Amino acid sequence: xxxxxxxxxxxxxxxxxxxTISRIHTLSWQQAYAGYVPASYLNxxxxxxxxxxxxxxxxxxxxxxxxxxxxxxxxxFASVGPAHDxxxxxxxxxxxxxxxxxxxxGLGVARQLMNSVNNVSPDxxxxxxxxxxxxxxxxxxxxxxxxxDGVEKLEEFAGEHLLELRYRK
Length: 169
What we know:
Layout: E1 9-12, H1 18-32, H2 39-44, H3 47-59, E2 64-70, E3 73-82, E4 93-100, H4 109-118, E5 126-131, H5 135-143, E6 147-157, E7 160-168
Parallel strand pairs: 4-5
Antiparallel strand pairs: 1-2, 2-3, 3-4, 5-7, 6-7
Helix pairs in contact: 1-3
């Protein structure tokens, strides 16, 4: 796989990418969040179930979706758009998603996706939400200039509440 990354490109996702994005989204959740998101919830996820959501996102004009590919194989994706938090300024952005095929973890794919995300509106503030227990993602975001701003929320998954932290830069 490392040889393939010499040809890594990040491009704007199109409607035809919805199925691929859904597959990566599901695989990444099932691998990355095993151990703290309830297994019953993770096992209930399916790529087919996410396709309509991604089709809707890909036809909207308010969200930029990027897909990273190497040798014709999709390795990850990211999406960014207007921040949804109550205290957001009109120009604030939010990194909604960044997920990789688990086989691409640690190979620099997320770094390339982050470069594309940062170019959407370089002068705007950006926030994201990350699980408190997701140390790997938190380190990645901190490396890219994000810092926790003290805002937290609980999200429920299969009856369990998980703490999410807002990061901002």
